[in-house]
Amino acid sequence: MMKLAVLAAVAGSAAAFVPAATPARGSVATQAALDDLKEVAEKSNPVLKYYDPLNLATTTIWGNDNEATIGFLRHAEIKHGRVAMAAFVGYIVQSNGFHFPWPMTFDGTPFPSAAGSPPEQWDALPDAAKWQIILFIGFLEWFSEAAGTHYMRGGKPGQFPKFSDHSELIPHPVPLNLFDPFGFSANKSEEAKANGLIKELNNGRAAQFGILGFLAEQKVEGAVPLLKGVVPHYAGEPMAPFA
After folding, report:
1. Alpha carbons 72 and 138: distance in angstroms, whole number
2. CB of 102 closer than 8 Å to CB of 111
């Protein structure tokens, strides 16, 4: 499971052209996007504040304008952080032997919690189970890109569309949305939501260090001194989901 989480974490996902008659419009929008990026950076790390040594926020990618590029970069960081948080928590849960109580397959085969560490548990999964997980994550990725206003075209970076708002893209009814399925944040103020995003960003950044630290120590003993002897050695390949 951890292999897939890391694989999904590295998987990446144009804005409309500005009419020549209104050249100031694009520059205003770009400046607003950059100002918002700097504000988020300062709130998430008051010590380091805005830090962009590679000037990524002032460049352009794939023929898009700078506003779309900022949207892509912000969305990528949020998505990587979310995947890393799921991977980090999942790694700890699986390492401690927790698993679903029901059989994994129709023939009664249990989940491979006894196979060893999380990467070894992934290796022990049948290929059919691996494909189910990969295809489900692929569907979520496709849905997030196809539904709603795209984050590179004026949409909000990190916002996952609601299934209930785009039923035409869903092959069958889905009773709950992926994000906030029970509507707990529906009545939160914009300030509370903004503060929640800052916490999510910081937790996601920490989780990326955490899950990669686990995997690095498993492959190269001593790579992360604090984890030496805490996680077992792994002889497989964490970046090869079907190895």
Report:
1. 18
2. no
